[in-house]
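Service request form, structural biology core

Requester: graduate student, group of Dr. S.
Request type: structure prediction, single chain
Budget code: on file
Notes: please return the result as structure tokens.

Sequence provided:
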Amino acid sequence: MSSVKRLAMHLRKFLLLYLVITILIGLAVGYFFSEFFTAHISTFKYVILALAIGTLYPSMIQLKGSKIGKEFRIKWREAIIGLLIMFLVSPLVAMGLAGEIGNRMVSIGYVAANSVPASSASIAYVLLAQGNIELATLLVILSLLIALVAAPFYVSSYAQNVHVNLPIALLAKSVMIALALPLVLGQITRYYLIERRARIAASDPTKKYRCKEALSDSEGRIVQCIEENISKRLKPILSVWTMLFLFALVFTLIAVKARLLVQKPMLVAYIFGAQLVVYSIVIVSLMISSKILRIRYADHMALAPVALTKNQSVAAAMAVMAIGPTAAIPASLIPAIQPVVAILYIYAAPVIKRILGEPGG
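Core staff response, request fulfilled:
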């Protein structure tokens, strides 16, 4: 096993621990050097944006859009349920809870944190839960497209309710930069690093990525097999990249507003508590929908991780570009509990199977 792969496995295993340590270090550094961060706040806006894009970029390389048309034709009902919960239930519940935060900028940021698209990392949770990977990929891609409109709409609407003028055009621009830019760059990189490379390798029997088990199949199957092998080799590198950028992003977000967080610990507690309420309502909505529509376990376990894990890097970039660094506080805190909820839900698989009436529960 390569050292990069071991590092990736280690970081994934202790992700929560490292996130908590990062938050604590960010609090300490930001609190004791608050004057430095305040004096260079405009610079740190660009640093946060760069880190957010850097966090998103590897997942956009791994995103494969083929087969989603076929999957939507087969699973259109499940896809619609998942999207409705992601872009109706989560944002509306968040808007209802945001009013009690007590800080208008933080409350706007909290709505943004629940209006952004699904995290591409959610596909890893789906894999662990033995869910439908194709359906999960479809949902992630569709959520990216829908969020380009939905996120600015929800944030602008809520801002108006709390008497903050946030033009929807400015919000849309921030989402386009934070989301569309890494998506385009990631897919260009994927083409040259994986897809084009696979086609070249398929025509050269000496290439190390040649798939012996696919030699008798069609050229398309051979190319697909080689793509999968290249992706497997790249995955540990991209995984380490993502997590290191995530740690740097969370550290910077916390450090910039450390004094506010230290002075208002109840603000932190409320954000965590409110987010757990959002997760609970999302889970109940998914379970009720799955029971009524008789959605099978594999499909349910594609919907749940995708609906529960929002891409907080997009929320952070959107906040610092269009709202202000204070609004990025929820996006810096939620990653500390998001993986815990997703993993606990996976551990509850036997109970979920029993509720859905499937064997193995």
